[in-house]
Please model this.
Amino acid sequence: MSTPLQGAELAAAITTSVERLKSAFGEHAPDVAVVLGSGWAGAVDQLHEVQNLAYAELPAFPQPKVEGHVAEIAVGRVGQQRVAMLRGRAHTYESGDCTGMAGAIRSLKAWGVKVLVLTNASGSLRSHQPPGSLMLISDHINAPQRSPLTGMSGSDRFCDLSVAYDKELRQQGFKVAQQHNMVLTEGVYVWAVGPHFETPAEIRMFAAWGADAVGMSTVPETILARHAGLRVAGLALITNMAAGMSDEALTHALTLQQAKLSGERAAAFLGQYLASLATLESLKD
Model:
């Protein structure tokens, strides 16, 4: 993967990307954007009146190189809620740089998006969250202590993450789950850079820290989104038990297999959740 843009080049790419988003989808941005992680691709089928634009047309957007990720943005409606879905993300393990989603997220903000919903596939650190479970992210642990804001100037780089995952958006998730008789857990997500899976000793350490699920994405995006002033919600699809918690060998193929088995249910819940956001007074103009 090519090195993410920075400085004046990134600013110019964002300006061009916003212009092309407006040209393709209209001046008025959707209130909500979603990053579709592994297992969540089927959520795009929840959209009606859908229009698509390739990331290749948006110079601030990444070109994902991970199986299961499509380099495209789709915009449409779920119920009464207009939504932009990003079908693919940049991972830190692809380039070693954790700023890979900076251009896309800042472009969404500049366009007028208010809420970013981040989805991922995760490993479970808790026996009550077996593969196939859905977990609402209540907080995160940045295990490598790397920040996509490193090197920035100005006081706004000291971004407050005391409520990284919006309380009202979390409450709405539980309301939707209850309405549809679905089990939705809540927990702390810990970010590990990857691309290798964690060791059993690392998983024991993460569990002792208070983590409930582990994955290789989401945290840099949350930091970027909060810095940009976006409200954030996070959903994890549990695809496996973490290292040392079962006898199963961990592979990316296993992650994709379990994601495929559970993806339809996850996508259906995401669609219901997104449609419900149209009822929030805080998102009405």
